[in-house]
Amino acid sequence: MFALLENIRVVLVGTSHPGNIGGAARAMKNMGLAQLVLVDPQDFPSADADARASGASDILQAAQVVGTLEEALIGCRLVLGTSARDRHIPWPMLEPRECGVAACEQAQQGAQVALVFGREYAGLTNDELQRCHFHVHIPSDPAFSSLNLAAAVQVLAYEVRMAWLAAQEQPAKPVPVVEQDEEPVTADELESFYRHLEQALVEIRFLDPDKPRHLMSRLRRLYGRSAVNNLEMNILRGILTETIKAARGEHLRQEKADV
Amino acid sequence: MFALLENIRVVLVGTSHPGNIGGAARAMKNMGLAQLVLVDPQDFPSADADARASGASDILQAAQVVGTLEEALIGCRLVLGTSARDRHIPWPMLEPRECGVAACEQAQQGAQVALVFGREYAGLTNDELQRCHFHVHIPSDPAFSSLNLAAAVQVLAYEVRMAWLAAQEQPAKPVPVVEQDEEPVTADELESFYRHLEQALVEIRFLDPDKPRHLMSRLRRLYGRSAVNNLEMNILRGILTETIKAARGEHLRQEKADV
């Protein structure tokens, strides 16, 4: 049954203070989580991290350090990013409690899930936030809203554990047998798709790379919440490939060659 | 409406690390709580506390420092103490979520509420735990169950805030008009009662001070969860006074004098 929690990783992006990494590791271990991924930490490994981890140093030792958020999310089917509430483009939001339930449900079906936390002072960039399927806001006093990083990890890990404990008490839902075609694509597959989509939109001159506006953001929000499956992704990718060919006139040349 | 949260105090008992006091203050302020009471802190005020408070130093400056838990609880009608699950005498337990709801309900009715947190390594003593009406256990992995102090404050303060936000969304329940007689007694009044009760039990030789066993604990558990009101307390105290008189034979002497 713990297998479920093993599918849930905590991703800390650009952390400044190693003490917060240690505090996050301790909070994770208290709540039964073990997978920690650090994106470009400023100071790690560190004695401060070990001190604050206080018995959870196994999690620090097993932590994966990567250079970009994209690498940290490889293989993830659900990506939940912590965020302040007001953003330029409103994104699908979850409460911490809903976040715990959603993470457990996906993990129970064998999907990899990421809980993503931003920098101590600056949070996640807009680009990083747009790689998340949902944003999670921890309700806090608007007059003093910024939680300590390890405290934020504590709250979400606690809600994951509460959802996990509640699921233990219920008769296990039969895990639906999902054909590979029907499985949602992973975060990295979605990123490849966005790059392909963007390229296609530039080629057809719908997107001006010098004035991109919020076009890609809006498209990311749409596909990000749609749980696109493998079959649908193949179709979308096929459309893009053909669109680009068409934009380059290759379609016409191909027709000529066919004649 | 914030008045409600102002009735809820956080009590930290015998804290070793001032950084944890600062972290607790920040977690409180994030969640809209402001009243911090420190029982016999080892190192306070402290630069470490200020550093970890990070913007919540107003809460540290306003913190009340007292010598005993009893002083910290003066005036409180509901006392909730954090505890590991297994104790010699099982006590009425609340989940953190129930704790948030109970604290808000009492605070809304104008009662003072205390959330009590123990020492980093040793928690609360049995004596301190028995001053609490309910114990709260934060569900954690049994293999690594001890949360950082500030993280524990974060979880309970978060549940208080969630309950408070939920209460805002519902039409306000009319606050029942409670006669003074019907108001539950405060924690300090209950302590005086226990002293009186213990004295009476010794006088009637029901309690052997050299072999007290768990008698007082069991009585504390009973009265602690019963929300004894002022009228009932007056009755109980009257019974004790008369019991002691009787045990000393004063009753007989009085009767003689009356003759």
Number of DSSP E strands of chain A: 7
- CATH classification, class level of the largest domain in chain A: Alpha Beta
The main β sheet of chain A shows up as:
7 strands, parallel
Q: Could you give me the name of the CATH homologous superfamily of the largest domain in chain A? A: SPOUT methyltransferase, trefoil knot domain
Q: Topology as H/E string of chain A?
A: HEHEHHEHEEHEHEHHHHH
Count of DSSP H/I helices of chain A: 12
Estimate what percentage of residues of chain A fall within beta strands: 5-15%
Largest interface: A-B, 30 and 30 residues
- Alpha carbon gyration radius of chain A: 20 Å
Oligomer: homodimer
Tell me the structural class of chain A: alpha/beta
Features:
homodimer, 259 residues, alpha/beta, Alpha/beta knot, Helicase, Ruva Protein, domain 3, 2 domains, 49% helix, 12% strand, RNA binding (chains A, B), tRNA (cytidine(32)-2'-O)-methyltransferase activity (chains A, B), cytoplasm (chains A, B), S-adenosyl-L-methionine (chains A, B), EC 2.1.1.200 (chains A, B)
Describe the structure.
- Chains A, B: Pfam families: SpoU_methylase.
- Chains A, B: GO terms for molecular function: RNA binding; tRNA (cytidine(32)-2'-O)-methyltransferase activity; tRNA (cytidine(32)/uridine(32)-2'-O)-methyltransferase activity.
- The structure is a homodimer of 259-residue chains.
- The first copy, chain A, is α/β, with parallel strands linked by helices and 259 residues long.
- Chain A folds into 2 domains: 3-169, 3-Layer(aba) Sandwich (Alpha/beta knot), CATH 3.40.1280; 180-258, Helicase, Ruva Protein, domain 3 (Orthogonal Bundle), CATH 1.10.8.
- In chain A, 49% of the residues lie in helices and 12% in strands.
- Chain A is built from 12 helices and 7 strands.
- Chain A has helices at 3-6, 18-30, 47-53, 57-62, 69-72, 96-108, 126-129, 149-169, 187-203, 215-224, 230-247, 250-258, and strands at 8-13, 35-39, 64-66, 76-82, 93-94, 112-117, 134-136.
- A 7-stranded parallel sheet of chain A has the order 3-2-1-6-4-7-5.
- In chain A, helix 2 links the parallel strand 1 and strand 2 (35-39).
- The model of chain A has no long low-confidence stretch (mean pLDDT 89).
- Chains A and B meet through helix 2 and helix 8 of A and helix 2 and helix 8 of B.
